[in-house]
Amino acid sequence: MSVSYFDTLVLTLVTFIPAIGGVLLLIIPRRDRDIRIFSLIVSLLTFGLSLHLIARVHRLLPGFQYEIDKAWLSSPNIHYHMGVDGISLWLVLLTTFLTPLCVLISWTSIHERVKEFFILLLVLETALIGVFTSLDLFLFYFFWESTLIPMALLIGMYGHGRKVYAAVKFFLYTMVASVFMLAAMLWLYAKVGSFDFVTIQNAIKAGQIPGFDAAAQWLFLGFFLAFAVKVPLFPFHTWLPDAHVEAPTAGSVLLAGVLLKMGTYGLLRFNLGLFPEQSRYNAPWIAVLALIGIVYGALVAMVQPNMKKVIAYSSVSHLGFVVLGIFSFTQAGLNGAMFVMLAHGVSTGALFMLAGIIFERKHTYEIAEMGGLATPMPKYATFFCFIMLASVGLPLLNGFVGEFLVLSGAFVANPWYGVIGATGVIWSACYLLWMYQRVFFGKVTHAENNSLPDLSAREQLALWPTAVAALVMGVAPLLWLNVIDPAVRSALAVAQVATKVVGQ
Amino acid sequence: MNQTIPVAADYIRILPEIVLSIFGLVIMALDPFIDQDRDQKILGAIGLAGTIVALISTWVMAQSPGFAFWNMVRVDGFSVFFHVLVIAIAIVLILTSYEYLAVQKLRAGEYYGLILFGLVGMCLMSSAVELVLIFIALEISSISTYILAGFRRRSATSSESSLKYFLLGSFATAFFLYGVALMFGAAGSTNIGEISAVLSSEQVPMLAYVAMALMFVGLGFKVAAAPFHVWTPDVYEGAPAPVVGFMSTAPKAAAFAVLLRILFEANAPGRFWFIWISAVLSMTLGNVAALVQDNVKRLLAYSSIAHAGYMLVAFAAIPELGTSAVMFYAAAYAAMNVGAFAVVSHFANSGERYVTVKDYAGLGRRSPVLAGALALFLISLIGIPITGGFFAKFYVFRAAMQSNLVGLTIIGVINSAVGAYYYLKLIVMMYMREATEEVPVLPIPASLAAALAITLAATIYLGVAPDPVLGYAQRSAKQMLQRENPNEQAQHSVSPGGRN
């Protein structure tokens, strides 16, 4: 296949253009409007470039594409090795898709320290894309840790209420968990002499690593802990509601839309890719944790008096589906997990934007303060309804496809997984529909709500893309799945070969 | 090498020390003739010139590696590295002190003189390969830091700090000297090369273990490693802030250089558990105690104990990996810590009034430059990517992991996560809290801006392209550990192909 020069460069561009934009913002004078427009242009440019990835992707190729591999440091042997496959490609696109929307939704809600806000947002985008494109373990860790500071600052500087508490909690939870991953990476490097993902994977497959069998379970847990906190898997989820509720809207969108996927992506790429045997071995209890997350998250979401908390706990529940799908070790389950990741990114991102829109008007997320909003804000109510239905998993919208695939995979792995997991779909209908009813239907209970302005053109501009994406993903999921499928198939093949070796 | 009269090459090999002594003397001689209120900046300028000339003469020195003065001094990549490091720290210190002295109304003459004299001791520590000379160098460096610590004469805490430092410091040096004496008894020599030959033999005399332990106690005090760290918080709290930045990096780096020479070059016996325990204690005590500090200087004091612990982790590793990791760490730590103290000392204002964590509330809004710089240094101290602190920790833990020290590595990484909390506390203060009382922030003078620019650039450089520095450290570590004449190694170390 012919690889043009641009193809090897495009990932680097997509990754670093936001950060370069952020640095340029430093020297742009403090005129808020210019800063917003500039950020929007940078994020749109990034999105446009990332479309090149999907336009030129070889759909049937399972391996990494658009690879670039240059020595960065000689000792330790660290490479600037980037590349995407069907798994990471979509996550990169999800990131570049959501960031311009974040810029739009923050247009007026951020009016203080505007410059810093957009710098942090753009730097965060680079770090997030870097996480998904790195094929060198060190580089991965580098970007992984780099996401912490901008996100924590976004929450702490621009959040509401107990924002500092939430920011510090978020930072410490993830930081503590990820040092164990660092220890595991260093162990692998000490034995293999390389941080390269593919090299390490091959070395493990060939059984060339001395002492691997004894250490494998610990290594698996080292990686697993870092990712489980990020996902967040029950019982590591307690940072999430705090972080979400206190974060500014754009922070919540990226947090739910992309940051959480770093965890599930890591599980898929590293835990499954490097430690297939241990993944099999540990799958039962992880699946149980995922199921607890699905049901527990949904039940807790139901009783929340705060709109944003409902959405936050619904994330715990939805991400439980992803983990369940990954550890079902079936083609359908893994495809579904990937699809839920994307669908959740779009629809929950949109839900957070919608919550942010009402917050801008009412300065509260309390459901009790709403009621009958469909009358003063019909457009808002329509968008909310559409996105909510997508999130619930209505057929022909994006939520349905992923959850269906996950559940069908889970049934194959163990019927009970499927049965319990399926209740999650019902629960999500309960809490979202009930919330919708309390917020939008009935009479307007608070007189001041009568005068709430409906969506502005800018807000609609931010919401339309998510609504369209939710619909297209639901109607034509194959557009996504036929890129995901080969990558997932090869990830699964690794896991299955390993099991056969064990079986002998 | 056994010539009786030193030749020119001998003097070239201590050229930086000579230059610094001369400039120090000049400053002292000029001091009485200068109007203290008006012209004290001239002295600072001379001090700055002295350090810059010393830096150039280090380059001259580096061109003629080898032994000097009857094998007492050894110029190799290792000593050049530490020369450059401590002199660079002093440059930043002088730049920071420039305005600080005026704000605090302190006399400049002795101040700059003492810095240069202390520097002589530190430079000599890094190139001495003879225990008695090391001891002398250690004393030169320590005595000037004792005085510098008490330089805010009108403040009781400063005097307390100086006295404490002096008493405990002398006690520790006595330990070191005792160790030297015993080592002479055990090995029949005070030359590190000859000691190494004796210690590498089959039967190591029992006395050598005792000698090593005593020397470790003495040096452990100098690097503020637990359990010899109790002096640190009080001394750092009282001493002038720029001096603390200096004290916590330059003499420490020199003491680490000595420790590296003694432990690795001399191949010290039975060192492993000493180091292991001291590393774990330093990291844990430093980090846990820092969690509850309200005073920024005390907080950074405890953090420096923890960082000494991280460096000690590398001492437990394979010598070659450990040495280069420690060297890199010393450089990165110097950049970020001196930078952090530059901000702290400027912000403290006259009489060092604003030094509690609370005073920093809202700094991000009032002085974006100061807050941004301090935030970056703190991020580096946490060990977040694109800063030198990240690679420093990374190399240390990699060295430990490659030496199969899994337990120590895990204790280390957990500690670095714990440490994140208190640095973060300060960042949170600056950016996420509003000031309750209006703390005045003085405009940033040019000298401080230069100091911040140097330290920021170094911190980021080490975080983005650590390869040149680490590569140099690795080559010189290898060279130091081969106990042959460095003259023959010189051409090896220059060629970049010599890396592994």
General description of the model:
- The complex is a heterodimer of chains A (504) and B (500).
- With 504 residues, chain A is mainly α.
- Helix content of chain A is 76%, strand content 3%.
- Chain A contains 19 helices and two strands.
- In chain A, strands 1-2 form a two-stranded antiparallel sheet.
- Chain A is globular and about 70 Å long.
- The C terminus of chain A is likely disordered.
- With 500 residues, chain B is mainly alpha-helical.
- Chain B has one domain.
- Chain B contains 22 helices and two strands.
- In chain B, β1 and β2 form a beta hairpin.
- The longest helix of chain B has 32 residues.
- Chain B is globular.
- The C terminus of chain B is likely disordered.
- Classes of the chains: A mainly alpha (504), B mainly alpha (500).
- Chains A and B meet through α5, α6 and α7 of A and α18, α19 and α21 of B.
Element-level helix/strand string of chain A = HHEEHHHHHHHHHHHHHHHHH
SSE succession of chain B: HHHEEHHHHHHHHHHHHHHHHHHH
Number of helices of chain A: 19
User: What is the average of the pLDDT values of chain A?
Assistant: 86
- Low-confidence segments of chain B, given as residue ranges, are 484-500
- Secondary structure: number of strands of chain A: 2
Termini separation of chain A comes to 38 Å
Largest sheet, spatial ordering of strands of chain A: 1-2
Major sheet size, sense and barrel closure of chain A? 2 strands, antiparallel
Please report which band the strand proportion of chain B falls in: under 5%, 5-15%, 15-25%, 25-35%, 35-45% or over 45%. Answer: under 5%
Q: Numbering strands along the chain, what is their spatial order in the largest sheet of chain B?
A: 1-2
